[in-house]
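Reviewer 2 asked us to include a model.

Predict the structure of this chain.
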Amino acid sequence: MPSPFCPGCGNGETTNAFLRAVRDLGHEDLSEFAFVSGIGCGAWIPSPHFKADTLHTTHGRAIAFATGLKLANPELKVVVISGDGDLAAIGGNHLIHAARRNIDMTVICSNNYIYGMTGGQVSSTTFTGDRTSTSPYGNPERPFDLARLVVAAGANYVARWTTAHPIQASRAMKTALEKKGFSFVEMVSQCPTAYGRRTKSGDGVDMIQWFKKFPVRKKGDPVDQKIPTRDGVDLGIFADRDEISFIDSMKATYEGLED
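Predicted model (structure tokens):
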């Protein structure tokens, strides 16, 4: 089957992990789901690959579209799949406010630490010192820690895994799909064409071996704010709570008006 992804891209692993989670939940197809994506390599995961209802939206606005979709049809399982540039850079404001509202949706972020599709520009997750097309002397900025950012904003479920941890990632996606409120799974993904080449991180295999060295959090570890470094990206579950979701909060508000 032809693919729009470059050789060695990690988006195939992210796709497989998600579809495995859907299958493990007992779904025979994707008829109960609606997918929303923005612009970028990660946005191509649901569209055009999934036989499902999809919205391929403007850059950075996937979560905004998904919010409207969920409010218009609360019975749908709304899933946003896109990249770190789309969701956390140009779309960062929508990400934190969706988590704050605890809007009922699952967001899967394919984080390859760079703008992979548009020329290898620096992203909001690019490590300090990394050379990209827009930081040829090294990135002077600090990167977001997306998992901790979304936890602090109020999401009910947050996890981070990599393409080198497909089983754990699929389990996290399964939990995220079952969770009420806002759930977020960050998938650290290799991009040998843009990130690997520009930062001299090697090919897809080299990057997967790098991901395998990332430490895994233990249950109950504090979610202290850290600045991610190339050797300091921890994996695991960062939040698993049951605060009231936005849909339930809306229902409670309307019931109060009726009384």
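The two ends are 57 Å apart (CA to CA). The domain at 11-258 is CATH 3.40.50.970 (Rossmann fold). We have added this to the supplementary material.
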